[in-house]
Amino acid sequence: MHELMANFIGLFSESAPYLLAGLLLAGVIRLLIPDRWIQKVLGKDSSVVTAALIGTPLPLCSCSVIPAAMGIRRAGASKASTASFMVATPETGVDSIGVTLALMGPIMAIARPIAAIFSAIVAGTLVRSWDVETPPPQEAVKSCCKQGSISPQQGRWAKARAVVQYGYGKLLSDFMGWLLVGLFFAALIQTFVPATFLSQYGSGVGAMVLVTLISVPMYICATASTPIAAGLMLSGVSPGAALVFMLAGPATNIATLMVVKNELGMRSLAGYLCGVICSALFMGLLLDALLNHFDVTLVVSMGEHGEMGSRLYSLAAVILAALIALQYGKKLRAHFFPENSQTSQEH
Fold first, then answer.
1. What whole-number distance in Å separates Cα of residue 75 and Cα of residue 30?
2. Which end of the chain is more exposed for a tag (fewer CB within 10 A), N or C?
3. Three-class secondary structure of residue 341 per DSSP
4. Are 340 and 333 in contact (CB under 8 A)?
5. Which residue, among 249, 254, 256, has the nearest Cα to 212 in the 3D structure?
6. Exposed, middle or buried by CB within 10 Å (0-12, 13-18, 19+), for 183?
7. How far apart are CA 142 and CA 292, in angstroms?
8. Domain that holds residue 300
9. If pLDDT is split at 50, 70 and 90, which confidence band does 148 have?
10. What is the pLDDT of residue 63?
11. What's the predicted TM-score (pTM) here?
């Protein structure tokens, strides 16, 4: 139990700074970027390719992409575009590509974003094919925007306040429960499934399927997954299996899947999960086949994954915990004292 709690706190601390950044970005997207622009670029008739290309370079992790994706969805993005964005963004980014280049060399640094874009396109296409487009949630967003909507005449402080109110208020309140549940299950995986468990299976379809089963519920960001994947390669896992881990892990943690289900629906969740898993396996097998065909051997330089107990992460974790506690306090007041809660919202 002590190890489980320690892993949960570690994951919470690891995700906290990225989640805070993602909430801020979501507030900016929702309240500063016009809905018409998002509807035009990522709306019903938008290509999932566009969403994948937009999401690929963004340095957002598995956790911070959740509020960002919710922001663009509620601003008018289609289910398919939202799913494509949610796959491409956490699977890679400018930061993780740099780490991949440093640890695994140029071939993996090139293969990773290509595989991420392909995975996002497949997932978005399946969501569009399997699900029926519905309007994004509007009622909750409108009530929030009434409190902090932005007009060109408002000053910078009013705009900043509206961004903070939406990102760290309404949006955090909407998904914080799913986040905590997801981190708990991720802590369970981390506690009872050691990373060395994967190294004994080497290469092939069996190894990749096993990597997928382990990485799907696991919380890990793209940058953090890179040194782990490098360590797996050094211990005998094929580059293709390592690529599967770097694709499936960041895009399919429990918290993300629960939010996809809540925001997009069960059919979209099925398309999302099937798209990520199938495309990851395909790209992993393709990479191994190409390396074998051209007789290329990758040289891996193992880096160290820095401790997450630094002051920055600890401070971010305390801030995030306080914000979550504040939102749960508001929910409790609204439940036990609905009249007082309604009065305070009107003011």
1. 6
2. C
3. helix
4. yes
5. 249
6. buried
7. 55
8. 2-346
9. very low
10. 67
11. 0.69
